[in-house]
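DM from R.C. (forwarded with permission)

"hey, sorry to bug you on a friday — could you get me a structure for this? deadline for the figure draft is monday and I only need the backbone to look sensible"
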Amino acid sequence: MIEILDPTQSADVKRLTALRAEGIPVVDTYAEQCAELAQIRDPQSLGGTPTLLAESPGERFVYYPWRRALVRIVGARAYAELRTNRNRELLTPDEQERFAKARIGFAGLNVGNPGAVCIALEGGARAMKLADFDPLSLTNLNRFRSGIPDLGVNKATLTARQILEIDPYYDLELYDKGLAPSNVEQFMTSPQLSLLVEETDALPLKISVRESAKRARIPVIMVTGNGEGVILDVERYDLEPELPILNGLLSERVARAAVSPATKALPPREKAHLARDFMGSRYLDQRLLNSFNAFGTTLVGIPQLAESSFMRGAALCYAAKAIILGRLLSSGRYSFSFSEQLKTANA
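My reply, with the result:
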């Protein structure tokens, strides 16, 4: 997807020469990166004479083919040090390292996208698996952080591009055909995930990936928009291997219907109502509930807002970080709503 080129290697020098001959522009802030790195390593030099680096931070050129751009940056260790410096002391160096070593899988990159990007921005989970078969459509642009030049591009690919533009040293494994019974176990365990973010649309898949996670003792988090807020589901199969799917909140009727082969043949309106029941009607605000009744008559989709999408990304990042770092986050369902919180605050 990208090329990371080392100017001390002859083969990479040839490639760099060829790219420059094509007229590929170079983004070069290498001197500024080195100056900032020296300051980070000697904070007392702030406002005084800049210090010099005691050792070379390394040098790489990254080629982004979808942007047709070369970017000159420092080596991997120095890059991570620079990019996560503003996390301190909200994350200690030890916490940052442990968060970075996690391997997180994202099943579904519509809701999962802001979570993956938020985690990458914080320097977490430098190894990720990204699964989604769906391409970006124009109707996604009320909430998906992208633009019209990306229409038709697979959402796993788009998410990978966004992450690699933040940090080219990330290790990303793409499942751009999505997940199916034939590859779920591989996705979960080869190599094994530290955490699964489950945000798929297909109800049978939502159950089967949880069953796989439960067998492998992989914790699962899922966030759902409930209208003006979010619902966060946490399933700590790492700590509670006998925990029922979705914390036992899924009714037997809905669970049976979700995995029934007959469900595939249901009319779209009935499938939407089943999805509503999967989430749990009592957790959804009235406007969202009304939209399910309007689906197939005056609506062609269930509404989602950008504010909820960004909230979901933050909630996923917070929950993932809490689990990876061993902070207290128990299995269960949690909710947050702007309208409810602000109403409480002004009461």
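R.C.: lifesaver. The radius of gyration is 22 Å.
me: no worries. The domain at 93-345 is CATH 3.40.50.720 (Rossmann fold).
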